[in-house]
Amino acid sequence: MSPANIVSFALFVSYFLEISAGPIGRAQKFLPQIDRKRLFTKEQMFAGFQLILIGFFKKNIIADAVAPYVDQLYSSPQNCMNIDLLCGMYLYTLQIYADFSGYTDIVRGISKLLGIEIMENFKQPYLSRNINEFWRRWHISLSSWLRDYLYIPLGGSKKGTGRTYRNLIITMLLCGLWHGASWVFVAWGGIHAIYLSIYRYIKEIFKKKELIDQTKYSFTKSILSILLTFHIISFAWIFFRAPDFTMAFTYVYSLVNMSNIGYTTSLILVTIFYMALVLTIDYPSYKADRELLVTSETPWFWRGVVYALLILSISFIGTSYVKPFIYFKF
Question: What is the pTM of this model?
Fold first, then answer.
């Protein structure tokens, strides 16, 4: 290996220090960008700064703001009312997404300012219409890595139905273990393995009997599918957030305990507000099938409004309760 290649490889390795946090870069896509002459364009500058602003907004205005509520509810779920615990489940679902995707946006934005393109790692995952689509939109670099280096080498879906489910389960269990040597992470991966297996099984039955057209979603079907997918994902996050099985099962039991019905109005309002805020950020990009809120084609007035709102929000509304990025502990 020549000295130039050694330097390029060292830069590649050092560029992705927190590999679990992602995006998980691949040498074949990263190294060519290092070796060629990079030009700093106006489009890269605007896109880079916008991603950085959105990333800080997600982290500071959403993730860090809801963290105290989540910490309090998960510290003693047995003492909480079940509607409050439902809000806690939703809030952690928002927290981990805003924290993780916010970090990714900042990394990708800074990279754009350096003339380096890094793959999009999140694509409005909570607007997915099924669990399979969710994993095409959530931590995309990890999903594609697991597919290419684990699921397919195990045989993928080419060696019979039984082995397909086996390979799927192994892949998702190791996906959970990827996040840490803890049984709750393995359980989280196992839950998603069950989700994916059920989805695949139902899809195959419907496909054989030609009951539905898998490619078409009516508006009502889309809404119901998104809501169902969001809720099963939110439930699985309980096992990801809980420090151990005892706390996870206590949370689930207290959540479904009908003798524990009650709620805190302020917590419900907080939950609705932050869910609406995440939807406000994600839906325009989802609808237009793009990663940015505004582009060079957006009228300059609206671009200015979006940038101003992001900057003012971060500067004056941001919480002082700052937590490390969640994925940095894995």
Answer: 0.91
